[in-house]
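User: What would this chain look like folded?
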Amino acid sequence: MEASIKHRRKKKQLGSYPYFTVVFSISISLFVIGLFALLYIHAEKLSQIIKENIEIHVFLDHELPASQIHALKKEIASQPYVSRKNRVAQISYISREEAAKKFIKETGEDFTKFLGENPLRASFVVKIAPQYAEADKMKEIASSLAGMTGVYEVDYVENLVEQINNNIKTISIILIAFAVILIITAVMLINNTIKLALYSQRFLIRSMQLVGGTSAFIQRPFLVRAAIQGFCSGIIASVMLAGLLKYAYTELPELKQLQQLETILIIFILIILLGVLIGLLSSYRAVKKYLNMSLDELY
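Assistant: Here's the prediction, encoded as structure tokens.
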């Protein structure tokens, strides 16, 4: 009786399958991949917002009539490099009086008292479309604006544009490199986890093979189980990421400006599909390996 119980326990151990370990390992791997994906899209959104706020100041000649100012504004607004929001060109007019008030407010000094006049010029503040926020294109834009009738001078922070682009490129390269390394590592981890889990099933696979089961018939239940595990792991990873995002948005409300619900939803779907795909491929390779092994190699 005691020998029979021990035999059953041994048999159960040989045929046991670590469901929790497999799902947990896959979930953690998918979570880390998803975390980097979310970090990347938030960084991309931040870079887009920064580029959308790059401005060019167009200073006008003195004593321009209102009609000419209006015509010049219309001409600038029609240019393709001007940023648009809801199809409205992002260009604003600052009169000499408004410029003086702003200067006095920022410096705390009223220069009109000792100068006797307002030397500041009226200007347009033009926001540039993100795709034009590059050093060479900005120079072309500045040259084009300077050539318009009624324009006295064009000014923008040239070094800032170059610095922003260089920083964005550096951050993008670093994130992409980390993402590639992370994906390769995660795939290897998931693959090894499933291989180790199926190691305990090698005698069951051989038994099914000995009683006449075809390769497709033997592989089917393992592939179905792997797909379910990958799906569940993807769901768990997505829920964890959603919880982390909610916490981050609560603690740092400013991050909501970088939120892209559609893109985040696509990432969650891709994580689930990735879990299913890696699970299927890893299980297929592992089962096929044990099917091709000899009996001596199984021990």
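The mean pLDDT is 79. If you want, I can go into more detail on any region.
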